[in-house]
Amino acid sequence: MRNIQNHLAQPTLIFGALIAICISILLPVQAQCPATPNIFQTSLLEPPQPGKELSTEQLQQILASGSMPVFDVRFELEYAISHIPGAINIPPLNNTSVEREVSQISALFPINPHAEFVLTCNGPFCGKSKRVAAALAVAGYDNFYRYQLGLPVWRALGNTVRTDFEGFAYIFNRDHTAVFVDARTPQDFLADTVTCAVNIQPGEATAANDDGRLPLWDKGARVVVFADDPQLAKKVASEIAKKAYWSSSYFSGSFADLENTHLRIHSSRRCPNGLPSAETDDE
To answer: What is the Cα–Cα distance from 166 to 78, expressed in whole angstroms?
Structure first.
């Protein structure tokens, strides 16, 4: 009987040994093969060009740690309307020259051609950062990066951006489809706000998406959030971006800054048709 049991056990032992051998072979191979990157972890993977490409995830880590400067090489107004928070504007003189950008960046790193920094602009089809990168490589810089996915992909992946005053004024005066969001308390909002602004508090993005405060039918509409504290505005704008409003941004100043400028924030002429005016026309 024992011989029969031993005979039956042999195939089981052999099979178990084979499994162990396969695992010992496959595990190192699997460790050497990285998982397929998701959309946050990849870049354009373009043919070799000056500057190493960064993924969105890598740029997020750089901005969070402050490990190297990020240079936005678009025009001043483009930058003011919307830019990646933490990026520094190094604007061009025109759409073809790179002299100003190279001069300013070289002045920041005059004796360190191995300096680390990031260039970015208007996304995959933007040539500004590529032209600046090529000129910097000629100047001897050999250790910089490009976030060539740029502002459009940054926004499409659920990240909000910052709007400075010149950009706020441009949107306010020229884009009557834009939605201005007051993130202050309901009491402050009722006391005074930008004409036809809507009040959205932290945690209310889903409700605002459903109840009409945000334009559910137009996810591409500009949504600009302001508050007394830019960090509060950023929080609400970030939550709105996660509701697929890829053109959300937050104002870098405060509501008091808006009140103390030439911008006519109480003019009901700014209101789109069909929306009530929170204030009477003071013109």
So the answer is: 10
Query: Cβ(220)–Cβ(214) under 8 Å?
Result: no
Residues 150, 122 contacting (CB under 8 angstroms): yes
What does the domain layout of the chain look like in residue ranges? 52-155, 160-270
- Residue in this structure with the two tokens 């996915």, named with its chain if needed: 149
Domain 52-155's class? alpha beta
Burial class, 94, CB count within 10 angstroms (exposed 0-12 / middle 13-18 / buried 19+): exposed
3-state secondary structure of 222: coil
Q: Record the tokens describing residue 216, joined without a space.
A: 């559910």
Give me 63's structure tokens. Answer: 């901005």
Mean pLDDT, residues 105-132: 96
CA dihedral 66, 70, 76, 80 (to 10 degrees): -50
Q: Is the pTM of this model over 0.85?
A: no
Q: Which fold has domain 160-270?
A: Oxidized Rhodanese; domain 1 (3.40.250)
How far apart are the C-alpha atoms of 247 and 266, rounded to whole Å? 24
∠ Cα 11 13 17 (to 5°): 115
Q: Given a cut of 80, is residue 59 above it in pLDDT?
A: yes
